[in-house]
Amino acid sequence: ETGVTQTPRHLVMGMTNKKSLKCEQHLGHNAMYWYKQSAKKPLELMFVYSLEERVENNSVPSRFSPECPNSSHLFLHLHTLQPEDSALYLCASSQDGGRQPQHFGDGTRLSIL
Amino acid sequence: KQEVTQIPAALSVPEGENLVLNCSFTDSAIYNLQWFRQDPGKGLTSLLLIQSSQREQTSGRLNASLDKSSGRSTLYIAASQPGDSATYLCAVPSGSARQLTFGSGTQLTVLP
């Protein structure tokens, strides 16, 4: 099993659709993260969960809704997205405390029509 | 607010060259710095993490240095190979310490 697994790898959806991105980590970590990577821009942190509680929310629009049912799984629920939301969405995990390296999945490439 | 800058944005070198990638940050109150590699269409692979108490970290042909006082880090790649072609990103924790602030990356191409 790879450390951090994201599904699906690619997703195309219309602006009125509802979909979810899934992330699973097999590293025994207790913190999980969602990042957004747009073309020509640095990675942007969206959400942080520590011990299944959301501890960071970087002014992300409400059309993105995270869920962390347990320390191994993280979801990003999407609804009524805009074309500018097209990006690579990366999940990461770490042992909490901020001093440990973050390990990333391969991302979901999202395209909004 | 922490800002991270990477220079150059792109670099193309012939195989076998030694090269240096640069990373600078505005707030020197960091306790570590992480270097990542990203291949096209892929996620990030952690290469090296340097704690603030360290000045260098080495892994194989990679050597990363950290100078907190000047707000700089370098990633040295020895004897570059075409397989080293990728985008290299540096990141530092900021704010609550769980947040990583990333640079825009250096896109490296090693020509055979």
Task: Tell me what the structure shows.
- The complex is a heterodimer of chains A (113) and B (112).
- Chain A has 113 residues and is an all-beta fold.
- Helix content of chain A is 0%, strand content 57%.
- Chain A has strands at 4-7, 10-13, 18-25, 31-37, 44-50, 53-57, 64-70, 73-79, 87-94, 103-104, 108-112.
- In chain B, 0% of the residues lie in helices and 59% in strands.
- The model of chain B has no long low-confidence stretch (mean pLDDT 92).
- Classes of the chains: A mainly beta (113), B mainly beta (112).
Please count the helical segments of chain A: 0
Mean of residue pLDDT values of chain B? 92
Shape by Cα distribution of chain B: globular
Rg of chain A, Cα atoms, Å: 13 Å
Largest interface by Cβ-Cβ < 8 Å: A-B, 28 and 26 residues
How does the major sheet of chain A shape up? 7 strands, mixed
End-to-end CA span of chain A = 33 Å
Low-confidence stretches of chain A: none
Strand share of the residues of chain A? over 45%
Structural class of chain A: mainly beta
Rg of chain B, Å, rounded: 13 Å
Oligomer description: heterodimer
Number of DSSP E strands of chain B: 11
- N- to C-terminal distance of chain B: 41 Å
Q: What is the overall silhouette of chain A?
A: globular
The helix content of chain A is under 10%
SSE run of chain A: EEEEEEEEEEE
